[in-house]
Amino acid sequence: MNIFDYLEKNKNKTFRKLHFNEADALIFSALAYFSYEAIKTPITYIGLLTKKEMDQLTINTTKAVENFKLISTMKNSKRYRKVLITLRDEKFSKEIGTQFSAVCFRFGLRKVFIAYRGTDNTILGWKENLMMGYLKEVPAQTYALEFFNKCKKRFKHSKLYLAGHSKGGNLAEFAALKSELKDLKKIEVVYNFDGPGFIDEDLLNSDVYKSLSEKNKLIKVIPEDSVVGKILNNEPCRMIKSNDINFEQHNLFNWQIDVETGKFINGETQLSFSKMFESIFNEWYYKVDKETVKDIIDCLIAVLKIDVSTKLSDLVLSIPTLIIRFLKLKVEGKGKKKKVRKELIRLYLLINKYNKNEKSKQDIILNDEEQ
Predict the structure, then answer these.
(1) How confident is the model at residue 326 (pLDDT cuts 50, 70, 90)?
(2) Please, which residues have CB within 8 angstroms of residue 349's CB and are 6 or more apart in sequence?
(3) Rounded distance, CA 202 to CA 215, Å?
(4) Nearest 5 degrees, angle CA 121-CA 199-CA 91?
(5) Looking at the predicted structure, is the pLDDT value of residue 306 above 80?
(6) CB–CB of 163/28 below 8 Å?
(7) In the predicted model, what is the mean pLDDT of residues 165-175?
(8) First and final CA of the chain: distance in angstroms?
(9) Which range scores top for mean pLDDT: 96-100, 165-169, 290-294, 347-351?
């Protein structure tokens, strides 16, 4: 069961009859990927969207078919048709690699949901994600806090819900953690749906983080085979089940939901692909100084410009080939070049080691099955 099954089951139940839940938060987070510049009216109810507007909202999104199905079902539902699309903001810069978008929804009685957009699955949208590997604060995070403050000021007497998927989850959490202690009583809950963590350890040691965590208002959700959610992750996560495997578990439309309660189906254990990625990343990344990480990421971006249509999933699965491309790049400065080469070779050897270990495990399983 996924969010479409949940929608079909509960589309005619108001928020009074079935209270806001995890499935609703995931649905609003999915809406953050839409192209809201297509709507001429700055404020409108979901139920008043026309067929043309719904087409324009979804046609350029990565999951266009699923997104159109989602918004059209919401438009005709008793539960969502009176949800008001209010504030929204979007910033994009190829020069500094910034991609930011957020939208604010009003629902129920004095309740406001702030949804932050993640990146799509193409390399062009991942430059800023890579920058998170060496910067404590990237431009999108700054914009995320600004948008939160704007919504907080606009809806002074409303409860605030913050969430996002992928990078959007990171932005939602960042905005909440950078807010003032006096604002926490307005925050109802913050969801980071399979988004990366932070290199700034002060964020997770702050009074704001402790307060939100103690009150169970800060929730990070990852699927069993999570990759993105395991990047820079230093906080507790709730593991859930997905209907797919490997990278496709990152797709929020595949997440399993109890349609009666709107809660995620709890996962059982971290799966092998996620374990391998996390082990390689942690063993490599935390032994490299941040300046070298920056140099390597600059090289990565240079390589990615060769083929911007490459999908992230394809990229990670062919990292050894990518590293060989890296080593052919001209890196300015002898010392810098030596460091970059050393760390890339170490990463290459780590990947090979874990691949061999994984293959050995699979061979053992196959031999056991044959016997």
Answers:
(1) low
(2) none
(3) 19
(4) 45
(5) no
(6) yes
(7) 97
(8) 36
(9) 165-169
Asked if residue 308 has pLDDT above 50, the reply is no
CA dist 89 → 86, 147, 243 (Å):
10, 7, 33
pLDDT band at 22 (very low <50, low <70, confident <90, very high): very high
| Global pTM value | 0.89
| Nearest of 54, 169, 62, 157 to residue 115 by alpha carbon | 169
Neighbours of 139 (CB within 10 A): 17
**According to the model, what pLDDT value does residue 329 have?**
61
Rounded distance between C-alpha atoms, residue 178 and residue 168, angstroms: 15
HSE-CB at 15 with a 13 A cutoff on CA atoms is 17
Give the tokens for residue 251. 């797709």
Averaged over 281-296, what is the pLDDT?
Answer: 88
Domains of the chain (ranges, CATH numbers)? 3-269 (3.40.50), 287-370 (no CATH)
- Spell out the SS3 assignment of 190-226: EEEECCCCCCCHHHHCCHHHHHHHHCCCEEEEEECCC
Tokens of 312: 């992230």
Please give, one letter per residue, the 3-state secondary structure of the chain: CCHHHHHHHHCCCCCCCCCCCHHHHHHHHHHCCCCHHHCCCCCEEHHHCCHHHHHHHHCCCCCHHHHHHHHHHHHCCCCCCCCEEEEEEEEEECCCCEEEEEEEEEECCCEEEEEECCCCCEHHHHHHHHHCCCCCCCHHHHHHHHHHHHHHHHCCCCEEEEEEECHHHHHHHHHHHCCCHHHHHHEEEEEEECCCCCCCHHHHCCHHHHHHHHCCCEEEEEECCCCHHHCCCCCCCEEECECCCHHHHHCHHHECEECCCCEECECCCCCHHHHHHHHHHHHHHCCCCHHHHHHHHHHHHHHHCCCCCCEHHHHHHCHHHHHHHHHCCCCCCHHHHHHHHHHHHHHHHHHHHHHHHHHHHHHHHHHHHHC
C-alpha separations of 161 from 109, 154, 158, 179 in Å: 13, 14, 10, 13
The residue whose two tokens read 């402790």 is 210
Return d(Cα 312, Cα 315) in angstroms, integer: 5
